[in-house]
Amino acid sequence: MLYLDFEKKIEEIQKELEVAKIKNDEAAVALYQKELDSEIKKTYSNLTPYQKLQLARHQDRPHAIDYIDMIMTNKYEIHGDRHFADDKAIIAFMGYIDDQKTIVIAEEKGRGTKDKIYRNFGMPNPEGYRKALRIALLAEKFDIPVLFLIDTPGAFPGIGAEERGQSEAIAKNLFELANLKVPTVSIVIGEGGSGGALAIGVADKIAMMKYSVFSVISPEGCAAILWGDNTKIQTATKALKISAEDLKEEELIDDIIDEPLEGAHRNPQEAANNLKEYYLKTISQLKQLPKDELIQKRYEKYLNYGKYKEE
Amino acid sequence: MGLKELFNKLTHKTQPSKDQAPTHWIKCPSCGALSFYKEVLKENNTCPKCGYHFRMSAEDRIKLLADEGSFEEYDKNLEPVDPLHFVDKKSYQKRIQEGYKKTGRKSSAISGECKINGVLTQLVVFDFAFMGGSLSSVEGEKIVRAVNRALNKKTGLVIVSASGGARMQESTFSLMQMAKTSVALSSLAQAKLPYISVLTDPTMGGVSASFAFLGDFIIAEPGAMIGFAGARVIKQTIKEELPEGFQRAEFLLEHGLIDMIVKRDELKTTISDILLFTNTPSK
User: Fold this and answer.
1) Residue B175 and residue A175: Cβ atoms within 8 Å?
2) Cβ <8 Å between A228 and B144
3) Is the domain of A13 the same as that of A65?
4) Is A295 an 8 Å CB contact of chain B?
5) Could you tell me the pTM of the whole model?
6) Buried (b) or exposed (e) across B74-85, using 16+ Cβ within 10 A?
């Protein structure tokens, strides 16, 4: 397990704890455990925006595919946009979450070099967004709710992506998902990078995992453009206010889903249970609404975004 | 006049401000010809030699498209509020003030109602001169209100984009305007009212990936730079040279992404023809 720079002290205590356990020194185990608990509490109740970003991008953080494995049963993966390709950065599964039929459409970053390349680091091409839309419309046809899991640095910036209409693919999703006649929930599980995230982010409820981020541009990109300085990442991260807590406070998202204090990667099952519980509770509420009211409310939510003054 | 000053005047790459027009020369970035700015203005901000389309202000664009005296501006009093108290090298407040000095507006878009060759329509025009034509809460709200007016009056909607994308200083508020404007446009679509999107130089990022590409008809100006990701970012990512003409209007037409490329002097007629074709009873 990788420890981040601000977790060094935790790592040291953890090592001492392991040694004490091996030695069967009960007194020392108790002591180190207590010290560890207090250090964890201290570190994680005071994270800087940049530290939260580091957690959101943590290499061991559960990905879409991990959550799907933990929360879905009797599932089948479905593929392709039926036009051009099967984008590996977008995955789709149909199956059950408890007894709730669900279609999950998600961005998958991949783990390890080979898999990351296979998944294009979670950066979809236009065919990925078209695959997402095709499958969302399939869900609508059979009256099955959709769960979107967002985890992407952004839509892929490439020649082919532009040739095949990256802009159009994203825009079309925003437009069509606004009208999808089934309840939809979108959850940012790691990184919500700009339009590439929003393209599967138009839903009845948008939630974020506690240590995830959602932003208009990557802090790196923002630092380069507005500060003209690639090293200003921490400053840009702070200024952009991209943490779940910030966005909830600004009412740009509906809910925050709790994670283990040290992050979802320290206890993926606990994070998955929270995500599942949130999804099931939310869907059961959304299912009570007549379809036209559901869509009406979705419209109102999006039309209300924005802050301005009228002199 | 010093030599340096003369040299600066001759090699002026961007548009000079209009009060300088009579004495100014402008160099065409496409053919290199030097023209009197007065002549360029007469040709609707295009190069008299090769037809290169210079960027134009929102006011000039409205003059180009709206029947004389028919444009009535709406929502002029919407102003940005700096929801995040954003400060980069300069504060957002300061950038708004600078934009205001430059354009006389606190928004990158002018919205209103006008007649285009006699056809009543809602018109929203972006201006790159105000913070790169960026999309923030104010512009998003202006578009939503323009859609609402179109719905109430059963008119079409024309949006002329010129934008680098979402405004970073409003962060996720700006990002959400992509969804907000797209949701509004789906109401317009359900009412079967026409929406013409005009893409001018440049139309990029969050603007390109929302309302700009949702037109029933998508028209681009010749040579306009249009795309999602910026060329610099793409180059850095793929570490390859980009093909000639990449992300230009002609490239998009070739790849089936837009309906047509229309020269500026034919734009008004094209728009009114489409509005008549789509929004009057069929024989």
Assistant:
1) no
2) no
3) no
4) no
5) 0.94
6) bbeebbbbbbbe
Nearest CB partner across the interface for A157, out of B169, B176, B233: B233
Helix and strand numbers (H, E) in chain B are 10, 11
Give all strands (DSSP E) within A144-245, no chain letters: 146-152, 184-193, 205-209, 213-215
Q: Do B237 and A239 touch (CB under 8 A)?
A: no
The total domain count for chain A is 2
Put simply, whether A310 touches B (Cβ < 8 Å) is yes
Q: Residue B180 sits in which domain range? A: 55-278
Which residues of chain A from 250 to 289 reach within 8 Å of chain B, CB to CB?
250, 252
Question: Does ipTM exceed 0.85?
Answer: yes
Same-domain status, A32 and A90: no
- Token representation of residue A12: 């040291």
Domain for residue B283, yes or no?
A: no
**Contacting A residues, span 11-70, partner chain B, CB-CB under 8 Å:** none
Which residues on chain B are in Cβ contact (under 8 Å) with A242?
171-172
Is A310 among the domain residues? no
Of all residues in chain B, the one with the smallest CA distance to A228 is B89
Query: Which tokens is B92 given?
Result: 């957002």
Whether residues A28 and A161 share a domain: the answer is no
How confident is the model over A152-202, as pLDDT tens digits?
Answer: 999 999 999 999 999 999 999 999 999 999 999 999 999 999 999 999 999
A150 and A218 in a single domain? The answer is yes
B126 shares a domain with B7: no
pLDDT exceeds cutoff 70 at B4: no
Chain B residues with CB under 8 Å of A84 CB are none
| CB burial readout A34-50, b (16+ within 10 A) else e | ebbeebbeebbeebebb
Task: Count the domains in chain B.
Answer: 2
Inter-chain CB proximity A171 and B168 less than 8 Å? no
